[in-house]
Write a structure and sequence with these properties.
CATH architecture: 3-Layer(aba) Sandwich
CATH class: Alpha Beta
CATH superfamily: Glutaredoxin
CATH topology: Glutaredoxin
Organism: Streptomyces seoulensis
Order of helices and strands: EHEHEEH
Structural class: alpha+beta
Mean pLDDT: 92
Protein name: Glutaredoxin family protein
Low-confidence stretches: none
Radius of gyration: 14 Å
Distance between the termini: 20 Å
Length: about 90
């Protein structure tokens, strides 16, 4: 199927990943936004801790919190609710 004709993924088929570390207030803020948006849209999400994954630590330690949408980096440091919502519904 051509990429131009690929169907849009349903919210339940999307995945938001929050890459964070313990004690990070920006991470807590990001999680609150993710919980709200994903809860409203029925999108699953998961958290990953950079202190438990060396590869994530090496890749993202200067940017946390980092938000991935379907495995692609969406944002870092601060999560804009409207932008995340648009990424998941557009």
């Amino acid at each position: 199927m051509s990429p131009l004709f690929r169907r849009k993924a349903a919210p339940q088929e999307r995945l938001v990943t929050l890459i964070r570390k313990p004690g990070c207030h920006l991470c807590d803020d990001a999680q609150a936004v993710i919980e709200k948006v994903c809860g409203d849209l029925g999108v699953p999400w998961r958290g990953r801790d950079i202190t438990e994954d060396r590869a994530l630590h090496d890749q993202y330690w200067e940017q946390i919190p980092v938000v991935l949408v379907d495995g692609e980096q969406h944002t870092f440091w601060r999560v804009d609710e409207g932008r995340l919502r648009r990424a998941l519904t557009g």
